[in-house]
Amino acid sequence: MKEKVENIKNELIKDLENANALLDVQNLKVKYLGKKGLVTELTSNMRDLSIDEKKEVGMLSNETKNFVTHELSKLEEKINNLELEKKLASEKIDISLPSTKVEVGVENILEKLIEEVESLALSMGYDVVEGPEVEKDLYNFELLNLPKGHPARDAQDTFYLDSDTTLLRSQTSPVQIRTMLENKEKTPIRIICPGKTYRRDDDDATHSHQFTQIEGLIVDKDISLANLKATFDIIAKKLFGEDRETRFRPSFYPFTEPSVELDISCFNCGGKGCNICKGTGWITVGGAGIVHHNVLDNCGYDSNKWTGFAFGFGAERLAMLKYGITDIRTFYTNDLRTKENFDRKDAE
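The structure assignment produced for this chain is given below.
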């Protein structure tokens, strides 16, 4: 029996010297460890042996099997490593070569501008509040001092959904109404509410049926136009430069009284007059005013004790002025070439 084991080991050593491929290893596994392999045959006549002989044969058989398995595993690992080295040598990559440039997306310019205004507002003590885009007529018009039949409703060309009670909001002012109504304690309010709004309008270079508003509201005691002017000055200088001047012009909004247009000095000509400011030296960027007493009363605030101001900007208009964009549809496309203009303007 010991002689058979030695013969098997010697034969295996010769076979290992001639094997140089994984296929050779597989064939050797069959030859030595298969059902009819040389190691398996060592125990083929176990039934004819005595108990002591069976123990000896079993021990020698297991030792031989472990030896063969170990040697074949070593050979297999060696061949795998050699093949891997050959593959790495033949498929190596020159990492010194320039890579292919892959364009990546960027933050939407409207979101970027809104976040800039939000960050400024938060630093001034405002809260950022959002509301539903599908709104009730009650919040979008009536509580804002625009009852049914009010001529100002016609100018907004609202998208009504089912009847005259549910609509796509035409302004973000309903968020202000909801905030005042939800404030049961009737404490001071200081909020900014950006969001999408919708109006029936022809889509062209300067108009869109969907646009973004950024509105602000303060309700407190002894609030005046002076507070509004100071707030507008900070926002204008932050967005358009420290050398910007601001002014108010009388206007009309049903939900504020008095109402004003918010103008900034033209950043292109410095107030001298050019095609951007249409020769006036000023550019209108939004509207504002002192909150109308009817709006305060409608929302549970005693207008004899409370006052406040509200302001609103069109985010697209601000971005078009800041980045020199001439077509509002630029904001709603995925043309990555436009990001270069935004990056350049920010760098300046």
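Interim note for the steering committee: The chain has two domains: 2-90, 109-347. The mean pLDDT is 86.
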